[in-house]
Automatic annotation (TrEMBL):
Protein name: Threonylcarbamoyl-AMP synthase
Organism field: Cloacibacterium rupense
Cellular localization per UniProt: Cytoplasm
Catalytic activity: L-threonine + hydrogencarbonate + ATP = L-threonylcarbamoyladenylate + diphosphate + H2O
Family assignment from sequence similarity: Belongs to the SUA5 family.
Protein EC: 2.7.7.87
Cross-referenced Gene3D superfamilies: DHBP synthase, Threonylcarbamoyl-AMP synthase, C-terminal domain
Length: 327
């Protein structure tokens, strides 16, 4: 059965409008991947630089041949293992993929999301969807429909509400240099899980001025409030006494007299639960007129690496990349 909301989303997309859709990672701002006029609206609404390419979302691995060619064996192994799911593959593109999608590169990023509402919508469309995270460029990614509405209000004709995102951080991005796999972005699938499937993977070296994956830009996923990332919150609190401080911890509960606000991401110490809660916690802290947010580093293993990666980008003060906006 097609619900009324999905019908509205289909109509909007067919009219080259944007919609927000839930995925299991974060909410996406979606448009027809084959319509340049629709894709342009994504860059305008997000204020996203044009050099930052988009991910094409498919309903199944069977659609892969429509968008990509010369697919390495290891990419197929990863697709078999992780799709539908939170893994994006960067592959050689077919010629009809618009340059706006790929920022003029000869590669295209693709994934099959796991969220049932996203899959239902994709199956009903006769085109794939490009969907970056549904937030203004550089700000905290949305993990609920309310976050998306908070950012874009009435500028979006349809926001499909699929509840809170179950994974809560963006997809892991893997590309290839020949047949050699390269990790472009840490994400909801851990490096250990990728390496269990295909063996060792190289990390891309980070370069802000010509980013291969702008998910690697140093400042990204950032709250408005000044944020610090520390080894030990207790040892740092003293430096900020008298200020309105909020803390983001993995497991530890703080004395309410020492902090104005606190978010504990997983009292039982589960990294998957912490990932699910990270962005919602940052959104809540950022809404409380704090002077400082102090976040604690996670254990550097599994999803802890992804969480530390996002927090490191959240604390960077300078936006030193050149911004090129569409008019
Ligand atoms: O979980 C996700 O991946 C979410 C949901 C909505 O699917 N989407 C998402 O999109 O995080 P976005 O646009 O915020 O991040 C896409 C990342 C960017 O860092 C971009 O540089 C990288 O994908 N990317 C896209 N095409 C690429 C390409 N051809 N080569 C290298 N990186 C690419
Ligand atoms: Mg994003």
């Amino acid at each position: 059965m097609i619900t009324k909301n999905i019908q509205l989303a289909i109509e909007a997309l067919q009219n080259n409008q944007l919609i927000a859709l839930p995925t299991e990672t974060v909410y996406g701002l979606a448009a027809n991947a084959y319509e340049e006029s629709a894709i342009k609206k994504i860059f305008e609404l997000k204020k996203r630089p044009l050099y930052n390419p988009l991910i094409v979302h498919l309903h199944s691995q069977n659609q892969l041949e429509q968008v990509a060619k010369d697919i390495p064996e290891k990419a197929l192994m990863l697709a078999e293992k992780f799709w539908p799911g939170s893994l994006t593959l960067v592959l050689k593109k077919k010629p009809h993929i618009p340059d706006l999608v790929t920022a003029g590169k000869d590669t295209v990023a693709v994934r099959v999301p796991q969220h049932l509402m996203a899959l239902a919508l994709l199956e009903l469309l006769d085109f794939p969807l490009v969907a970056p995270s549904a937030n203004p460029f550089g700000s905290i990614s949305p993990t609920s429909a309310a976050h998306v509405y908070g950012y874009f209000k009435e500028d979006l004709p349809v926001i499909l509400d699929g509840g809170d995102c179950s994974n809560g951080v963006e997809s892991t991005i893997v590309g290839f240099n020949g047949d050699t796999p390269i990790l472009y972005r840490h994400g909801a699938v851990s490096v250990e899980e990728i390496e269990d499937c295909i063996g060792p993977i190289e990390l891309i070296t980070h370069n802000d001025t010509s980013p291969d994956a702008p998910g690697m830009l140093s400042r990204h996923y950032a709250p408005k409030t000044e944020t610090h990332l520390v080894e030990n919150i207790n040892e740092t609190l003293g430096q900020f006494s008298g200020k309105r401080v909020g803390v983001l911890s993995f497991t530890e509960l703080f004395n309410p007299q020492d902090v104005v606000a606190q978010e504990i991401l997983s009292p039982k110490g589960d990294l998957k639960e912490a990932a699910r809660n990270l962005y919602a916690a940052l959104h809540r802290l950022d809404a409380q007129n704090l002077e400082i947010i102090i976040a604690e580093k996670f254990p550097n293993k599994g999803l802890g690496i992804t969480l530390n990666d996002r927090l490191q980008r959240a604390v960077k003060k300078n936006i030193n990349e050149k911004m090129v906006f569409t008019k």
